[in-house]
Amino acid sequence: MTEPRPAPTSRPLGQPFDLTGKRVWVAGHRGLVGGAVVRRLAREDCAVLCVGREDLDLTRQQAVEAWMEANRPDAVVMAAALVGGIKANDRRSAEFIHQNLAVQTNIIHAAWQAGVGKVLFLGSSCIYPRDVAQPMREDALLSGPLEPTNQWYAIAKIAGIRMAQAYRRQYGCDYISAMPTNLYGPGDNFDLDGGHVLPALLRKIHEAKVEGRGEVVLWGSGAPLREFLYVDDLADALVFLLKAYSADDHINVGSGEEITIKALAETIAGVVGYEGRFVFDTTMPDGTPRKLMDSGRLAALGWRPATDLRSGIAATYRWFLDNAERLRQ
Ligand code: GDP
């Protein structure tokens, strides 16, 4: 057992964190969120550390501890996670709970052992109970039963929030948590089975247009409401929080823009230039009926998103077209 010891770089809690000259490890730099955080940190006066999965398996505790000890980051952004859409979450329950618990536990504990001064843990809006009052406030956490389709992922993320809080409380570590709403943008997962709705529909609608098909199948009823945030806006919020936020409570990061799945499909069709119709496969689940975050606490700190949904979808579609060849492989 490792003896508890104070982090060598520990600072009083509740203070700003200056990124100047710091070494920041972006865990999960090849993912949607990690990639955007790396792009955003390029504008800060800090060094960005990245390590690929071929060189470090984040599910192996000893490997993570050895890497952290050897590389000694000053801060860690925890963008490494197994994520997926409604179908992947439902079908791969064991992988979702095991990999997320393992990765986050290894990183947080190894960060403490190596004296990392700041850790930013990330979750998602699915941590909140299924039938919670909307918009969802931070204090709604653990106030009711979870949505069954993604509870495995949600339970792991709730454990991560509590772990960051526990390390703050017992060891005085400046570890914080941010909960983004549904994200999309360049670098997303466009896999039809595994991905989330926005990239899946972008691809389905694009392919229907190219192949001259008159209809596109949407899963579920099309009625669920979702909020979407452009990933480069999220990255901006995360850098803001890394510098300015030091508190026990996790903090929501949303756009405040809510739309039904049907209206989302129509917006995407407008961007892609598709004129066919939509049909609904109601044998597929709807998931949570509504998922809108209350991001009032973040707004009160002075942060706001810059990208509206249509512009964000247009930028994502450009990225998809530029990378379509590679995505097919
Ligand atoms: P969720 O936000 O955790 O429910 O995950 P998703 O982003 O995968 O799904 C959001 C909503 O979009 C659900 O109601 C899905 O049934 C619906 N949906 C409609 N068509 C699709 C599709 O082609 N792929 C996905 N992933 N969801 C779809």
TrEMBL record:
The keyword Isomerase applies. Gene3D superfamilies: NAD(P)-binding Rossmann-like Domain (3.40.50.720), UDP-galactose 4-epimerase, domain 1 (3.90.25.10). GO terms for biological process: 'de novo' GDP-L-fucose biosynthetic process. GO terms for molecular function: GDP-L-fucose synthase activity; isomerase activity; NADP+ binding. Keywords: Isomerase, Multifunctional enzyme, NADP, Oxidoreductase. Its EC number is 1.1.1.271. Substrate binds at K204, W219, R226, D286. The active site is at Y153. It comes from the Bacteria. NADP(+) binds at residues 28-34, 122-125, 157, 180-183, 196. The record marks S124, C126 as: Important for catalytic activity. It catalyses: GDP-beta-L-fucose + NADP(+) = GDP-4-dehydro-alpha-D-rhamnose + NADPH + H(+). Residues 25-254 form the NAD-dependent epimerase/dehydratase domain. Pathway: Nucleotide-sugar biosynthesis; GDP-L-fucose biosynthesis via de novo pathway; GDP-L-fucose from GDP-alpha-D-mannose: step 2/2. Belongs to the NAD(P)-dependent epimerase/dehydratase family. Fucose synthase subfamily. Catalyzes the two-step NADP-dependent conversion of GDP-4-dehydro-6-deoxy-D-mannose to GDP-fucose, involving an epimerase and a reductase reaction. This is GDP-L-fucose synthase. The lineage of its organism: Bacteria, Pseudomonadati, Pseudomonadota, Alphaproteobacteria, Rhodospirillales.
